[in-house]
Amino acid sequence: MKKILFIISLLALLFPICVKAQLEKVIVETYYISDTLDATDTIGGGLEVGSTTYRVYIDLAPGSKLTKIYGDVNHALKINSTQPFFNNKADGQSFAKEFAKNRYVDNTVALDTWLTLGQTTKTGSKTYFGILKANDNDGSFVGGANNDGGSAAVIYGLFNNNNPLAGIALTIADGMDTMTVLPTNWADNGIISSGIDSTIFGSVLEGSQFNSNNVSLQNSGVAGVLPDSNQILIAQLTTKGEISFDLNIEVIDTNGTLIKYVANDSILLAGEILNRYLKYPYEQSCGCPDPLYLEYNATRDCDAQDSCKHLIVFGCMDPLACNYDQAANFNLQELCCYPGYCNDRDISVVCPTLIAGNRELNIYPNPTQHQLTLKISGDEDASAMYVIYNSFGRIVAEKNCSVINGTNLVQVDVTNLETGLYMIQLRTNDSLLSKLFMKN
Questions:
Q1: Spatial separation of the C-alpha atoms in residues 128 and 101, rounded to whole Å
Q2: With 0-12 CB in 10 A as exposed, 13-18 as middle and 19+ as buried, what is 433?
Q3: Is 347 in contact with 397 (CB distance < 8 Å)?
Q4: Are 91 and 72 in contact, with CB atoms under 8 Å apart?
Q5: Mean pLDDT of 5-26
């Protein structure tokens, strides 16, 4: 009985119980907003005033690794803007892993548009990976005094704009840090053809759209710089327009299982999981914030209290069981008790109606915060006692009372009980009646 009550209590606190998704969310960080000084450079090409550089991160559960971003015949990879993307004409790259660290000091190279799986640059001894500026504590080698000032030789360098909409200044944090565990087996398809990139990630042709059903960038698997948050950078996009994207990714979980997450479900094959965060901008999903209701939504973006409609009532929903509860809406088979088999419990306690005679017990309100009312009916006077058990089967309250022929109302003060699930048992000389209740 103790084990069963503990399971119920745990369910009440954690409902709904589900396998945690490896893809938790997608983060779009505003990395930098260009100003008039940045626009003076002509070496890297035309960087317009007010262009915004975004960084896109895949946020995975701790321990999982990102192995691939892709578009296939059923799920296109789409990265679009309402204005052209900026690509540095002098030293830009299609994939961030190709940058040498010393090129980031040149003109507008640091704002180039590219794809990656975590890696942003490398030197002879260190390899750098993307990290949100808010989590970057190792300083910056981008912008300000670190920058050569571009074609106009701006005396204090480029990328000094401290626009608050871009968060921490690039001169303080560059969103790059080192890791010792490096991915291997890099491969790409559908971006570079015959050594030339004419997509939005290259400077050969100016563009504002990339839509492909035959594209991929992959490696052996990469995690985030910070293992607990596990956020992996996959793209840097610089444009004056509004961005949108449909992403598809492959993830390896902690058990070594490969999982595919896709942005749309027009065709959803075995092993593919739809995740709304992969389509940006995504629609907010509001839901019930109260775990005591069937409608509780743990992944909601905002609270909608009016969506909490059905309070969870745990119980045995098997009509063949002696403790069948027609009021229950959440079945716990472990609770079900049958004559001859009652999960090693006392059937007289689990199914008190078998020995309840003509007596009946109802309780309200349930859940309750301060006071529980016992409504006891019967056709004989009797001395009685109520006993309250906690979720571990321990007695936390008991009191003698008496009942008379007819209907009796007994008030029980539960103010001092901790939040959780309890069982109250009414004992008389001819009956044993039990009910579960929740204390808020």
A1: 9
A2: buried
A3: no
A4: no
A5: 58
Q: In this structure, are residues 176 and 137 in contact, taking their beta carbons and an 8 Å threshold?
A: no
Q: From the CB of residue 407, how many other CB atoms can be counted at a distance below 10 Å?
A: 12
**Domain end position, chosen among 237, 269, 301:** 269
Does residue 313 sit within a domain?
no
Rg (CA), the chain: 31
Region 424-434: mean pLDDT is 76
Residue whose C-alpha is closest to residue 166's, from 26, 243, 37, 53? 53
The domain total for the chain is 2
pTM: 0.68
CA–CA distance, 286 with 273 (Å, rounded to integer):
21
What amino acid occupies position 343?
N
Q: What is the 3-state secondary structure (H, E, C) of 385-435?
A: EEEEECCCCCEEEEEEEEECCEEEEEEEECCCCCCEEEEEEEEECCCEEEE
Cβ neighbours of residue 283 closer than 8 Å, sequence gap 6 or more = 276
Helix (H) or strand (E) run with residue 118 in it = none
**C-alpha–C-alpha distance, residues 15 and 30, integer Å:** 35
Distance CA 93, CA 114 (A): 7
In single-letter form, the type of residue at position 47 comes to L
* Residue numbers of the domain that contains 390: 356-440
Q: 3-class SS at 103? A: helix
Which pair of structure tokens corresponds to residue 156? 């204090």
Lowest mean pLDDT of 86-90, 124-128, 227-231, name the range. Answer: 124-128
